[in-house]
Amino acid sequence: MSFLEYAPAPESTAILHLRDEYGLFIDGAWTEGRGATFPTISPATEKRIATISSADATDVDRAVAAARRAYEKTWSRMPGGDRGKYLFRIARLLQERAREFAVAESLDNGKPIKESRDVDIPLVAAWFFYYAGWADKLDYAGLGAAPRALGVAAQVIPWNFPLLMLAWKIAPALAAGNTVVLKPAETTPLTALLFAEVVQQADLPPGVVNILTGAGDTGQALVEHPGVDKVAFTGSTAVGRQIARAVAGTGKKVTLELGGKAANIVFDDAPIDEAVEGIVDGIFFNQGHVCCAGSRLLVQENVHDEVVERLKTRMATLRLGDPLDKNTDIGAINSAEQLERIRALSAAGEEEGAERWSAPCVIPDTGFWFAPTIFDNVSTSSRIAREEIFGPVLSILTFRTPGEAIAKANNTPYGLSAGIWSDKGAKILAVADRLRAGVVWANAFNRFDPASPFGGYKESGYGREGGRHGLGAYLTTGPSKGGA
Amino acid sequence: MRLIGADLTEKSLRLHLEGLPGVDAVGLERRAASLAGRSIKTTSKARALDTIIRLTDLTTLEGADTPGKVRSLVAKALTPDPARPDTPRVAAVCVYGDMVPTALGALGSAHGDPDDGGVSVAAVATAFPSGRASLAVKLADTRDAVENGADEIDMVIDRGAFLAGRYGEVFEQIVAVKDACRRGDGTFASLKVILETGELATYDGIRRASWLAILAGGDFIKTSTGKVGPAATLPVTLLMLEVVRDWHRLTGERIGVKPAGGIRSAKQAIGYLVTVAETAGERWLQPHLFRFGASSLLNDVLLQRQRLLTGHYSGPDYVTMD
After folding, report:
1. What is the CATH number of the domain that holds B99?
2. What local confidence, expressed as pLDDT, does residue A275 receive?
3. Can you tell me the distance from the alpha carbon of A326 to that of A102, in angstroms, rounded to the nearest whole number?
4. Torsion angle of alpha carbons B115, B116, B118, B122, nearest 10°?
5. pLDDT score recorded for residue B113
6. What are the pLDDT digits (tens) for A260-312?
7. Do domains A21-258+459-476 and A263-449 have the same CATH topology?
8. Which of A1, A4, A269 lies closest to B277 in CB terms?
9. Interface predicted TM-score (ipTM) over 0.85
């Protein structure tokens, strides 16, 4: 037997106490949705985890009305310091229940437990801690004198980092004094529903946080609801466009965090071994279900062969399988639909003549899986170099000079993130300066911090989340609308 | 001489070493931490614990070492856990050169190649641990240990010369020591080159020193003497494993790696095994390619081994002192 065949080391699910059915969380209480129920399944086993309610337009009305009442009667009138106390309490509760949340996230989403345990959930707590600290310091955020909350925020989040995206949305909104109605993605509602329990545990005033589950039509009813003052969405560029159209002219403030096709640029003077790690972090983290994933590797031509050879050797050590096993590096693809999209784009890559190589790994019999894959000799016009695949698929392109690297990196309708690998500090700064991307990582990739603003250029969306800028997205210094 | 390409001059050596890709410290430490985070359980853990014992150089390097202490160390090397005779033997005992005859005498017929189940004798030499002596003294120290019957020589590099940029001098010394490892019958004692990474301080320096030691003919590159802190760390060992992996890719030749000092718990050591297997390859997990230089590690491994077999923890009084 090989030493590398590590014995199974599964995280126990005994810590989870899930209900068989979940309703909607409105006005501090659980209520049944009026829409048809649907199951949420584990993408690794395709087994049902729980039955989930769907909110229809009437439910959305009730939730927005509850959020409005909470905003007017309690939350907007509460001193910032007191709002901060609630947020600190939520952060501590999330830390206390961290293992439970990590298991739930990996079960529902398919991501490896080591990522939900070491990345997602710690960042979730960090986000609440960070914004809790801002709640009584809004006057000093540099946004102008006496900034005020906007009112009721409608928030629609994606399935790739379910609880983390919830934290990115809810923490700044509440710190600034808004109340929220949040809709998690249809395939990953579980941790948002567990978060509702935390909201109850923290004794948050009813209506401050409302969680509505459902599919696209629920989300549409929510963002189009006239009682909403702010819309925040993270997801695909296509849906982002629909939302931008729907809210145009309504006076609602909007933040959109959409797709990306990030360039990860490796220069010939890069620390090669760490760059290879960075390429792996960039595209295979969370199965590549990352809007800021480093999905285009731009490697300097004179080190191309060496980098690709080392990358393949490294990829051969990636372990694909049970998301709950502590040694799993690559978990399940979130849904059959997403798997189909990854397969279709990969097939297009082959048809367009790129060289495909996949890491040798055993694909489990049930569930949705895709082996980590690279495409070499990809041309800039190829679909896999232009379109967001949102899966563990890397397109490799080469460049000869820094100028060419910058031109190719910027030659995309997106502009969310980029990475630069070089041992020369001056070169890193010079290149970073010319990249049109919201985040540029130097000798690192996919690292997040609540103090750092995150957001994109062009079709990657507008507005910033995180840091002081993220707070500004939920505040106004303009004249009062009256009423509130 | 194993320098690739160019004639060996101080200048060509410098160009080669300084032309090696840099090391990003944050990235290296992050990768090491992720390897240390592997969860090795049940059957894999049992196998790992036995592998650690088989790869250990059980070490005593004290001014106060006596023949009695060395004999006791050898007894522990041969029978690590008297209550469980199925416990494997360690790879080698590591002592000062003057203790080699004592160690050999105590080993008796068990003396042999650890790849074949024997226990070999390693001696530190070349004015260990500081290396501050003339080359003549270092060579005499080495020859003395080899003549006394040492199977393996653990030499130290001249860190002063390395840090002053006199790479050629360090190189020549390793070549000379290697030559002094030649036995009467023309065979060589295996040469481990101690870089004393705690004194080289930077990862870039450690990568250069690793290449230098291999180019000059070292059979093993070893992190530390154990007399300087920090001794072995996982990021440093990972870096050295990357060098031997790259050397193998270029030349087809396999060089050994020995982290020494500071590895005290079985859990830590398992992290090293994972790092070896996932970096250089599982093939490196044999005595002629990987060793732990340790004294207190063995007892923790034995305690963990007992726990796995019996289902409960015993205590320090259930393993022998040395």
Report:
1. 3.20.20.70
2. 98
3. 12
4. -30
5. 97
6. 999 999 999 999 999 999 999 999 999 999 999 999 999 999 999 999 999 99
7. no
8. A4
9. yes
Domain residue ranges of chain A, discontinuous segments joined by +: 21-258+459-476, 263-449
Q: Is the pLDDT of residue A481 over 60?
A: no
Calculate the CA A303 to chain-centre distance: 32
Residue B69 appears among annotated catalytic residues: no
The CA distance from B246 to the nearest CA of chain A, in Å, is 10
Whether the predicted pLDDT of A345 surpasses 80: yes
For A21-258+459-476, CATH gives 3.40.605.10
Measured between CA atoms, the residue of chain B closest to residue A2 is B282
- Residues of A marked active site are found at 257, 291
Is residue A363 within 8 angstroms of chain B, CB to CB?
Answer: no
DSSP notation for A254-295: EEEE-----EEEE-TTS-HHHHHHHHHHHHHGGGG--TT---
Closest approach of B26 to chain A, Cα-based (Å) = 9
Residue B251 belongs to some domain of the structure: yes
The total number of structural domains in chain B stands at 1
A260, two tokens:
């990306």
Q: Which residues of B make CB contacts under 8 Å with A?
A: 21-24, 26-28, 30-31, 37-45, 47-48, 51, 242, 273, 277-278, 282, 285
Give the range of the structural domain holding residue B251, as residue numbers without chain letter: 25-318
Tell me the pLDDT band of A478, cut-offs 50, 70 and 90. Answer: confident
Averaged confidence pLDDT in chain A: 96
What topology is assigned to A263-449 in CATH? Aldehyde Dehydrogenase; Chain A, domain 2 (3.40.309)
Q: Is the dihedral of CA B219, B220, B221, B226 positive or negative?
A: negative
* pLDDT at residue A482, as a whole number: 47
Residue B235, pLDDT above cutoff 80: yes
- Give domain status of residue B2, yes or no: no
For B199-219, the pLDDT digits (tens) are 998 999 999 999 999 999 999
Q: Residue B28: which of A5, A269, A274 has the nearest Cβ?
A: A274
Length of chain A: 484
* pLDDT at res. A483: 42
Q: Which pLDDT score, from 0 to 100, does residue A484 have? A: 41
Residue type, A175: A
Let me know if residue B285 belongs to a domain.
yes
Q: What is the pLDDT of residues A139-182, one digit of tens each?
A: 999 999 899 999 999 999 999 999 999 999 999 999 999 999 99
Residues in B closer than 8 angstroms to A443, CB to CB, are: 24, 26-27
At A279 the pLDDT is: 98
**CB distance B38 to A6 below 8 Å:** yes
- Residue A286 to residues A111, A290, A293, A393, B12, Cα–Cα distance (Å): 6, 7, 9, 12, 45
Distance CA A277, CA A299 (A): 14
CA–CA distance, B288 with B282 (Å, rounded to integer): 13
